[in-house]
Amino acid sequence: MAFSQKSRQQTIENLKNTPLDLLIVGGGITGAGVAIQAAASGIKTGLIEMQDFAEGTSSRSTKLVHGGIRYLKTFDVGVVSDTVKERAVVQGIAPHIPRPFPMLMPIYDEPDSTYDMFSVKIAMDLYDRLAGVTGTQYANYTISKEEVLQREPGLKPDKLLGGGVYLDFVNNDARLVIENIKEADELGANIASHVEATGVLYDDNGKVNGLKAHDNLTGEDFDIHAKLVINTTGPWVDKFKSLDSKESQAPTLRPTKGVHLVVDDSRLSVPQPTYFDSGADDGRMIFVVPREGKTYFGTTDTDFNGDYKHPTVEQSDVDYLLAAINNRYPEAGIKLDDVEASWVGLRPLIAANGSSDYNGGGANAGKVSDATFNALIDTVNDYEAKKADRAAVEKAISNLKTAHAEETLSPSQVSRGSSLKRADDGMITLSGGKITDYRKMAAGALALIRDILKSEYNVNAKEIDSTKLQVSGGHFDPTNVDETIKFFARIAQDAGLPEADANDLANRFGSNTGRVVTYVQDGAAPGLSLKETISLRYSVNEEMALNPVDYLLRRTNAILFHADTLNDLKEPVINEMARLLDWSDSEKADQTEHLNQVIAETQLDALK
């Protein structure tokens, strides 16, 4: 089914002329999650995004679906329980995207260490029980200092005590967004990128009943009418709220900036994702992750008050990360010139929480008394000695649990770090959260939306089980991922692609691989491999890729993890997109300039 520049024109007409039940503002992971669930519920749904889908925060995460083991430091067991359960749900509804990849946590004897060797084992055991992986191949274990250094010889041995290994998942954040968006489109939602909200419409009673919109591609202004409007604009929540003169303007968010740097794995090689204290006595932790022949590391965590649409990597960000990496890997000697790519994103943190995943959790950390904690430790020890059963452990956990379980949440807090509110004029705002929680946040919003549609508009929307609502590309058995991906790869090989290219396509597109390979019939585009050609054509025709940056940065990771291929890719990608989208010579020139600017910024040319 087409989801392209051509179908976009019809979508704009539908948005102008069809009264909606629900209009979603913001096409990041939160808006995408609301859209797929709303469309599946039979709600007449529209979504507008002022940029490309996932262009903001949702393509600029640490690219993990991680379980938040750090929260156990503050005994926020409810948060971890929710998070690891959601991680499993995301793997089930998008089985071609998150992949299990055990995390190594080296433990150092330093004054501000998050864990020591005793407490990390207790935390990992609890984490595994919450995640339901106890007794499986992914169960945690500790290793000695010598074993840590066998895995990662480059790690600093001084004060190294050993390490813990536990289950985590790698993720492709931008692809998770576009697959949700595509499925919502397939289910009947009217979804358009590059459409910006410019004002709020009200009925005669002063209630929100739509938005004024501007098409950033054509310059057209138009109105969109809807019974309900929901603000899912991420870091832009407060800026969008300023359009609504009838809503309180008290700040909701305290955005922070997170930076990641990419180097070739010949400069820094790690066998698995690694997670450690920064070593700067600042309470932060750093991820180091191998990916596609590269290694990336981050993140910074600093308050941000600059241009939300265009945050940039500054020298201070680079200095901080290089100091942390070279402290932990003293022989690596990573320098600015080694950085091949970077990305920077804003985290939409709820101001009242006061903190984030990366610097130790917020004011609502849910600390418990020493007596309660000691009771849990005793129960865990009894369980290890086979003197207590699982029920006893679960009971001890429940005594610690804060009010974060889905069934006990108030409407104003879908999960820790997120907020769901409805203003007096009817505007709904879903803010905060993190990528792991997106499905659950959307489910909370949909429960509210269904209630309002029924009680105020006599519209009955069906309830759905969103934990089973698979995204585009993810329509297969999540318990048999490896064999299924091999099957999709064989489809691509049968269409004439080499094995390595076929595997790459199958892992990227999942159950849509068969649709992707239909584009082989026109042959390879000049200067492009067959794999790159059909990937590009599919992304333009069925993933709303409207310019080279959409394709090379968010539909694929070429700009981030294949910088060495860009000189060969740029011109043929632009030429093929120009043919597919019927660009003029001046449009081609503009797109070339835009792509070169993004690449230069990503590669930190200005700092170099």
Report on the structure:
This is Alpha-glycerophosphate oxidase. Its EC number is 1.1.3.21. The chain is 38% helix and 18% strand. With 608 residues, the protein is α+β, with helices and mostly antiparallel strands. Among the domains are: 18-58 and 174-252 and 406-468, FAD/NAD(P)-binding domain (3-Layer(bba) Sandwich), CATH 3.50.50.60; 256-346, 2-Layer Sandwich (D-Amino Acid Oxidase, Chain A, domain 2), CATH 3.30.9; 481-602, Alpha-glycerophosphate oxidase, cap domain (Helicase, Ruva Protein, domain 3, Orthogonal Bundle). The strands form four sheets. Strands 1, 2, 8, 9, 10, 11, 18 and 19 form an eight-stranded mixed beta sheet that branches.
Keyword list:
608 residues; FAD/NAD(P)-binding domain; D-Amino Acid Oxidase, Chain A, domain 2; Helicase, Ruva Protein, domain 3; six-stranded antiparallel beta sheet; glycerol-3-phosphate dehydrogenase (quinone) activity; flavoprotein
Task: Give a quick precis of the structure.
By secondary structure, this protein is an alpha+beta fold. Helices cover 38% and strands 18% of the residues.
Q: Give the full name of the CATH homologous superfamily of the domain at 18-58 and 174-252 and 406-468.
A: FAD/NAD(P)-binding domain
| Share of helix, binned | 25-40%
Content-based structural category = alpha+beta
Strand content: 15-25%
Alpha-carbon Rg, integer: 24 Å
- Class of the domain at 18-58 and 174-252 and 406-468 in CATH? Alpha Beta
GO molecular function: glycerol-3-phosphate dehydrogenase (quinone) activity; glycerol-3-phosphate oxidase activity
Pfam family, one: DAO_C
Keywords: FAD, Flavoprotein, Glycerol metabolism, Oxidoreductase
Cofactor: FAD
